[in-house]
Specification:
201 residues; two-stranded antiparallel ribbon
């Protein structure tokens, strides 16, 4: 059987929007070096997620999952800095690098397909304390707007050194790559966002 939701804008109007501005500085290869840098300031907000499978989880048929769902979307950090460049060094060696800095994204549970509101803590309400709950022992409800809690800033630096050799009219390249130079290990998933469960956050 397949469920078809015919009125997804009821009881809450569904919305997803993004506004941002990008600044780019670029220097084409000249004098043996090139560079490009960019900065993006933007904000995605709404109550329809923009991460993988967010639209497939379809929380819109349960009004409890819509509580505090409007806020920062999971994909699209507020600040994005990207720098890349290359230098044609002596002895035919080319040095290049790529740096990326992204401000934290909203907390996201590791459970695939979870209907929890991303970036918000969830509280558990029991039927024993709330007699209005009729069909379940408890319900979990987001008690903060989406995006209230965010991961740490993510920074990443990759470097490469390359030298080309001529061998029998052929070109042979030797490359050395160093990924994640500073061994950045920012958290990108949270085990659970439910304050009632052990290991919250």
């Amino acid at each position: 059987a397949q469920t078809v939701l015919t009125n997804p804008n009821s009881p809450v109007e569904l919305e997803r929007k993004y506004r941002g501005i990008e600044t780019v500085i670029r220097r084409r290869l000249q004098g043996g070096w090139q560079f490009e840098g960019s900065y993006v300031y933007g904000r995605g907000e709404g109550n329809v997620g923009n991460a993988f499978a967010d639209s497939q989880t379809a929380p819109y048929s349960n009004p409890n999952t819509l509580i505090n769902r409007y806020g920062d979307l999971p994909m699209g950090p507020r600040h994005q800095v990207k720098l890349l460049g290359a230098w044609m060094a002596p002895y035919g060696i080319t040095l290049s690098g790529y740096f990326e800095g992204l401000s934290g994204i909203p907390w996201t549970e590791t459970f695939f397909g979870s209907n929890t509101v991303k970036g918000a803590a969830t509280a558990r309400f029991f039927r024993t304390d709330n007699p209005q709950i009729l069909s379940e022992t408890f319900i979990d409800v987001a008690v903060e707007p989406a995006g209230t809690r965010k991961m740490d800033t993510l920074t990443h630096l990759d470097l490469r050194a390359e030298k080309k050799f001529s061998v029998n009219n052929q070109v042979l390249s030797a490359m050395v790559d160093v990924f994640n130079v500073f061994n950045a290990d920012a958290v990108t998933l949270i085990r659970n966002v439910n304050m009632a469960l052990p290991g919250f956050g």
